[in-house]
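During the no-cost extension, the postdoctoral fellow (Dr. R.K.) reprocessed legacy sequence entries with the updated structure-token encoder. One reprocessed record is reproduced below for audit purposes.
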Amino acid sequence: MKILIIEDEAALLSVIRDALGREGYITEIAADFDQALDKISTYEYDCILLDIMLPGGSGLELLSEIKKNKKKEAVIIISAKDSVEDKVNGLDLGADDYLAKPFHLAELNARVKSAIRRKNQNGDHKVQWRNITLDPDNRTVVVNNADLLLNRKEFDLLYYFVTNPNRLINKTSIAEYVWGDYTDQASSLDFVYSQIKNLRKKLSTAGADADILSVYGVGYKIS
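Re-encoded structure tokens follow.
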């Protein structure tokens, strides 16, 4: 799962990034309005942590842009501005949550998990795809009531596919989601094929009622 942190305070940004990284998230950062707008317009995320006051513009303008483009990311505003008016404005514009600074990292992590659950999992703690059950909080997978051991990248791949059922996803989007932004600049995306091949084999061996189909020259989808 991938999170974009939009925050101009370098020390806080680093602390948040390290904390979420320890929880297993892929994290990307933006420290000003223009950089954040470029990231939001170009890449996909599960959750965006959004500061209101940014060099070059307002986080609320970015939130409006997210909603105007019908992007599905969960958005949590993190701001030192703790007035009722700011909270109401942010929530009215479509934010999923509002967390006032300073905050405990444990609370931030809980809010992120909750927001992603609501957006990707219909509020459920687990994701079900036929005879496959994923528990994102604990990063575990069960197939036919038996545990399936996946590494971090394989789990993220499977989660991305089952939360986008029957959607044809191109290789670049898969690489960016699992390995981070700017993998579109890599000279080769062969590592995507290699990881998907390993995941397919594990799913087949476990008797999973699903397959990751390859569409030549385009990408993959679960079916």
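The longest strand covers residues 74-79. The mean pLDDT is 93. The remaining legacy entries will be reprocessed before the final report is submitted.
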